[in-house]
Specification:
Elements (H helix, E strand, L loop, with lengths): L19 H16 L2 E5 L8 E5 L5 E2 L14 E7 L3 E3 L1 E3 L8 E3 L1 E2 L2 E2 L1 E6 L2 E4 L10 E2 L5 E3 L5 E4 L10 E14 L2 E10 L11 H7 L3 H11 L10 E2 L8 H20 L12
Parallel strand pairs: 13-16, 14-16
Antiparallel strand pairs: 1-2, 2-3, 4-11, 4-15, 5-10, 6-7, 8-9, 11-14, 12-13, 15-16, 15-17
Length: 273
């Protein structure tokens, strides 16, 4: 179930089977529901003024980057959907605006679109940050891109923009974009019919043959229609396994905590509220 579906909807937890593991999931979901009841939009869709604000239980604005938890008690993580699958508007959390609402990216005074639809649900992991002062020596010394970690959710259903979904991370690509490290975590919603069968990167190929290569090629090439070069990848272009992925998530969560505490310089004037 998505959390924060629309300006008129209040989230309700999905009933789960009465076993111990499901009970832990339900506790985690209820905790998240209490923190993100709905979203509210301002401005027309497709305009420079459009913003989607997340609302707390008492109606106050909250940040999808700062105020939602990263981890759930059952080992899943929370995925904030910015771009539903099979759409092309380049939506993103505005990390430099107070309460970091979702907006449409802008270039040269105009809202941005991908040259073609993205084939997966796309968004971010809350409370993560790719530190622009940290060099990844295994990827040639490239630095982080100063954004939260991106997620490519591969499930069959289209997510709602602004929805918050528990997902299972199973792999990660180390994409290099304009000389910056831009991790792409591959994950699947726990509500997907195939979620139980997908627990590591090799399971993706079994259940979705060819999907990882499609993701690699899509993110490699999506800027080329605008005359830009292909993006590259570290680690020999491989999608790394779940253990590595969880390490990336833990590391970028620690970078985030240092940013919030002031231990890391906020050189790009990111909003920390």
């Amino acid at each position: 179930m998505a959390m924060g579906l629309s300006s008129k909807q209040t989230v309700r937890a999905t009933p789960l089977r009465a076993n111990r593991a499901a009970g832990r999931v339900n506790v985690a979901r209820r905790a998240l529901v209490a923190r993100a009841q709905k979203v509210e939009t301002k401005g027309e869709s497709g305009s420079l003024e459009y913003r989607m604000f997340f609302k707390s239980e008492c109606g106050e604005n909250m940040s999808p980057w700062h105020d939602l938890p990263l981890y759930n008690e059952d080992g899943t993580v929370n995925f904030v959907c910015e771009i539903p699958k099979e759409t092309s508007a380049k939506m993103e959390v505005a990390t430099d605006e107070v309460k970091t609402p979702i907006k449409q990216d802008v270039k040269k005074g105009a809202v941005r679109f991908y040259p073609y639809n993205i084939n997966w649900n796309y968004g971010l992991l809350p409370q993560t940050w790719e530190d622009p002062a940290h060099a990844n020596e295994e990827c040639g010394g490239v630095f982080g891109d100063n954004d939260p970690v991106d997620v490519v959710e591969i499930g069959s259903a289209a997510c709602e923009m602004g929805g918050v979904y528990p997902v299972k991370p199973v792999g990660v690509y180390a994409m290099i974009d304009d000389g910056e490290l831009d991790w792409k975590v591959i994950a699947i919603s726990t509500a997907d019919p195939k979620a139980a069968n997908i627990n590591d990167v090799e399971d993706v190929e079994k259940e979705f043959p060819g999907e990882l290569e499609k993701i690699r090629v899509w993110f490699r090439d999506y800027k080329t229609p605008d005359g830009k070069p292909q993006n590259g990848y570290g680690y020999d272009d491989k999608c790394l396994n779940k253990e590595f992925t969880m390490g990336v998530i833990a590391e970028t969560h620690e970078f985030y905590n240092k940013l919030k505490s002031g231990a890391r310089a906020n050189s790009e004037e990111l909003s920390l509220f």
